[in-house]
Write a structure and sequence with these properties.
Elements: H1 3-14, H2 20-26, H3 34-46, E1 51-52, E2 58-59, E3 66-73, E4 79-83, E5 90-92, E6 105-112, E7 120-129, E8 134-141, E9 145-150, E10 159-162, E11 173-181, E12 190-199, H4 203-213, H5 222-229, H6 237-240, E13 244-245, E14 253-255, E15 264-270, E16 276-283, H7 294-302, E17 306-308, E18 311-313, H8 318-324, E19 333-342, E20 348-358, E21 363-365, H9 366-373, H10 388-408, E22 417-422, E23 428-434, H11 438-461, E24 467-469, H12 475-485, H13 501-511, H14 517-527, E25 532-534, H15 558-572, H16 577-617, E26 624-633, E27 636-641, E28 646-650, E29 659-662, E30 667-670, E31 676-678, E32 682-691, E33 696-704
Parallel strand pairs: 5-7, 13-20, 14-21
Antiparallel strand pairs: 1-2, 3-4, 3-6, 4-5, 6-7, 8-9, 8-11, 9-10, 11-12, 15-16, 16-19, 17-18, 19-20, 22-23, 24-25, 26-27, 26-32, 27-28, 29-30, 30-31, 32-33
Helix pairs in contact: 4-16, 10-11, 12-14, 15-16
Length: 707
């Protein structure tokens, strides 16, 4: 047990405050080490792990009813305290924040207990760690000063900027302001402008605002770039030695038309015994990105590439991600390959993992391959005639693999994704549904097969590894979901926290083609836990899989890169006890960092989409659309349109009656008219208001359409 943990354990055990010298005596601290020991106590006090009483004694905060956690701000000024021990949120009135801002780690005292469903109330006693040292917002200039209105509406105070620190910013500029004085009493925080992103409303300024808001690292450090520049743009002959040569095989990539970082290539043929031999060939990034190199450390820090609406913030410099690592056509590329022999029932009866070199014959797109298989007439596709038999064989295997997963109980959300079309200035001109076509499904199934095969292979070797896990949903979430879908006549079987993914898939199968399919599928997705990376293999609930990992995208995901490194060490026979012990720490760190950065990337991508959807709908104020009720809350209803844009109908805009919210059925019912709105209802709305900064759209209901 570390000294900090021992100090906390002791203070909890004795249940009374102790002087620093008493603690030193109990732990037999040598006089020469007293300074170091007292420094540890000071650090623990700063971090809120322990506290100092008025009599200069140390105690655990909970002994005095204090809690440590994070502040979640609101636009209205009050906030909620989210405790680290998950013991329940605490309401913090605006006057009790004492200078704390959204995202800050704080210590609070509970000032009133929860009564009749009312939350506990608290007051911030100490700010442990500030979350917002730099804030993105819109600058407004006054006569002798200016202020920045934060983009993040949960930060509900403007930042005062003295004239001397305006740094040339003009009203309406998107800026980054650095806090130099924190708020006290009724005084706003004070800051200085450190970066001008451009005029509010311009595409570049808006996207840069998202990048700065989520602290996404755009430019690579010079030393990382220099290391990347030292790598040859071509595969060297000595790099090929010892690898299996697949350059004469028919291997190709199938990706989106705008993809530049091509991680994966595929090959397929029939064996004499009637089985399929599927080859999945993945860019061997670890050949170039060595452990603990500057490239590797930067890749771990980023952990993922971030795909915003008009740009990519890559995990690796473009010289690698779009160059020597990308499986571009007709050039030598180093790969890590998995061969899988698959029988007519979709079972992988044999597999082999090995280092290889390939030369892809074509760089194909999902659209082209789907059009060929769906017999869409396009003369320019005739150049791929020599590959048509391969495509047909792949479609056949895809069907077999999918059928196997469905038998197993895999949850298959057949969601269309919104695709936002921008003009040359970066403004949204259309939003369409991007369907999963046959070529997308082929690659999806082949990558799933490779990921499962690799994960199972490594699991049985009992070597530290990064798994992709998806935990079972909570009993409470499924119970709440069942309450809502009961209105539609559905129910998901499973009780006492024991639910099989097949139960969910059976529901999705019943929903196919029904009006409520999209809606209930979305509600189901919200009820599931988020997948994450873990050094412990706990299986993947959504895929109904005992073994799963991410192996197929090492250019854009760090877990894939890390497990490639482990696999190659196993293949080379260099794994030993010391290395295994070191890997335990490495995979734990990679799992945590990658999971956290994945969430951050998702938030940034979602924020950018919400920005552009709001901007798009701002051009349709006063116009009518048909939509359906996707969520009902105490303050209103969210309506989703056909193009997947969403807006809020505030309960106060329902002028024909006083509406009562029923949480159990997720519905609102008029007290006098008994008119009822519930999830799934089809309505005609008018676009009323749009706040692009807040990413919010307000609708007003014109009428409810009868079923």
């Amino acid at each position: 047990m570390k000294i900090k943990e021992q100090i906390i354990a002791l203070l909890k055990e004795v249940e009374r405050p102790l002087m620093d010298i008493e603690l030193a005596e109990i732990f037999n601290i040598d006089k020469k080490q007293l300074g170091e020991f007292f420094a540890v106590l000071d650090e623990m006090e700063r971090n809120g792990e322990i506290m100092i009483t008025r009599k200069k004694k140390y105690a655990v905060p909970e002994f005095y009813g204090l809690k440590r956690g994070k502040i979640q701000g609101t636009q209205k000024g009050f906030a909620f305290f989210i405790p680290e021990d998950a013991s329940g949120d605490v309401f913090i009135p605006s006057e009790a924040l004492n200078g704390a801002m959204h995202g800050d780690i704080v210590q609070i005292a509970v000032t009133s207990s929860s009564v009749e469903g009312k939350r506990e109330e608290g007051e911030v006693q100490k700010i442990i760690e500030r979350a917002n040292t730099e804030i993105v917002g819109t600058f407004q200039k006054g006569n002798a000063f200016g202020f920045v209105v934060p983009d993040e509406k949960k930060i509900n105070v403007d930042v005062y900027v003295p004239e001397s620190l305006v740094n040339g910013a003009e009203s309406g500029d998107k800026v980054v302001v650095r806090i130099i004085k924190w708020p006290t009493g009724k005084k706003n925080p004070e800051g200085k402008i450190i970066e001008n992103l451009g005029k509010k409303g311009s595409n570049e300024a808006d996207i840069l605002s998202v990048i700065r808001k989520f602290k996404l690292p755009e430019a690579f450090p010079k030393k990382v770039v220099a290391e990347a520049e030292s790598i040859s743009v071509d595969v060297l002959e000595e790099d090929i030695v010892g690898r299996r040569d697949l350059r004469n095989d028919i291997v190709f990539t199938i990706d989106g038309s705008d993809a530049k970082d091509l991680d994966d290539a595929v090959s397929l043929k029939m064996l004499e015994n009637g089985n399929f031999l599927l080859g999945v060939h993945i860019a061997d990034v670890t050949h170039y990105v060595k452990e603990n190199s500057k490239l590797d450390k930067e890749a771990l820090k980023r952990a993922t590439s971030v795909y915003l609406i008009d740009r990519v913030i890559p995990m690796l410099p473009k010289r690698l991600s779009n160059g020597v690592c990308s499986l571009n056509p007709q050039v030598n590329r180093l790969t890590l390959s998995v061969n899988m022999e698959i029988d007519s029932m979709g079972t992988v009866v044999n597999h082999e993992i090995y280092e290889s070199v390939i030369k892809t014959v074509e760089r194909l797109t999902y659209t082209d391959v789907s059009d060929i298989l769906e017999q869409v007439e396009r003369p320019e596709l005739s150049k791929y005639d020599y590959l048509v038999d391969n495509f047909k064989l792949m479609a056949q295997l895809q069907g077999i693999l999918r059928e196997k997963r469905m038998r197993r109980g895999m949850i298959d959300f057949n969601f269309a994704e919104p695709k936002i079309i921008l003009d040359e200035m970066g403004h949204p001109i259309d939003i369409i549904k991007e369907e999963r076509r046959i070529a997308n499904k082929i690659i999806e199934e082949f990558m799933l097969a490779a990921n499962e095969t690799v994960a199972e292979h490594m699991h049985w070797l009992e070597i530290p590894f990064v798994y992709r896990i998806h935990e079972m949903p909570s009993e409470e979430k499924i119970a709440a979901f069942n309450k809502v879908i009961h209105n539609f006549g559905y129910f998901v079987k499973g009780q006492h926290g024991d639910i099989h993914p097949k139960a969910i898939q059976n529901l999705l199968t019943k929903l196919e083609g029904k009006k409520e399919e999209h809606l209930i599928s979305k509600l189901m997705l919200r009820s599931l836990k988020q997948a994450k990376y873990s050094p412990i293999n706990e299986g993947h609930f959504g895929l109904a899989s005992e073994y799963y990992c991410h192996f197929t995208s090492p250019i854009r995901r760090y877990p894939d890169l890390q497990i490639h490194r482990i696999i190659k060490e196993v293949l080379a026979g260099t794994m030993n006890e010391a290395r295994i012990k070191r890997l335990e720490q490495i995979v734990a760190e990679a799992s945590l960092q990658s999971s956290e950065q994945e969430r951050l990337a998702e938030q940034a991508e979602r924020d950018t989409d919400d920005l552009k959807m709001a901007e798009y709908l701002s051009g349709f104020i006063g116009e009518e659309f048909v939509g359906f009720v996707s969520t009902v809350t105490s303050f209103g209803m969210y309506i989703e349109l056909e193009n997947m844009c969403e807006g809020l109908v505030h309960v106060k805009s329902l002028m024909d009656d006083y509406y009562i919210y029923d949480e159990d059925t997720m519905s609102m019912t008029g007290e006098r008219t008994k008119k009822r709105y519930t999830v799934g209802d089809e309505v005609i709305i008018v676009v009323d208001k749009v706040d692009i900064d807040a990413r919010t759209v307000d609708f007003v209901i014109v009428k409810k359409l009868e079923a």
